[in-house]
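User: Hello! I'm new to structural biology and keep hearing that structure can be predicted from sequence alone. Could you demonstrate with SRPBCC family protein? Please show me the input and the output so I can see what each looks like.

Assistant: Of course. The first part below is the input, the amino acid sequence of SRPBCC family protein. The second part is the output, the predicted structure written as tokens.
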Amino acid sequence: MELDIPGVKLIETFPKQHFLAQCTELTHAVYPHDRIYGDYCTVQAHIDAPAEAVFRYLARTESLQEWRYALRQPRLHRAPDLYSFVDLLGEPGETRRYCRAVSHAQAMTVDFHTAWDQADELWMVDLMRVVPSSSVLARPGCVVLWTHCHHPNYLRNPYPETAVAERRFWIGDAWPFAYAAHTVELANLKAIAEHRHLLGRLAYPCVLDAACAA
């Protein structure tokens, strides 16, 4: 197979020795933090609980207050699915974080579209996927993959007129610590899911009964 597209490297047109040489060049003993986590942050974990149950738990937006480090007091902001939380990272003052969970049951993906201070442009997007670990690790449970991208708005507040007046901290200031913070939060999710699975009650007690029945 050959593709006449600049930059595409396939074995037919890019000899194996060149491919191995480039792989060696791209593999380093030490990687600078900003090179790894500059534009993307991905964490992953195995959870000893059924994939379908973990997906259903994640898909309930309100459950964020249990496993995310600083999101509290969920309330329905706009029906049917836009919630607001208090984000305690935004102190002093009360920073509101607006969130809509977009989930697809067949693929078991849950994308959290969020933003600080305003609900019109949900530009902070967490992409999560739940995979049965029987298919990828040959063991019970599931693997949760979580990717976040460094949106340009992390560099500056795009809506300064909606910001809490006394707050001097912007969520983008925390980007260098995204990997560490998400690792802690994913460990929270793992602990909660595994504990409740053992008790046979992983479902989150939803505020919206109709949503729980869905």
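User: So the tokens describe the shape?

Assistant: Right, they're a compact way of writing down the 3D structure. Reading them back into a model, for example: The chain is about 30% helix and 25% strand.
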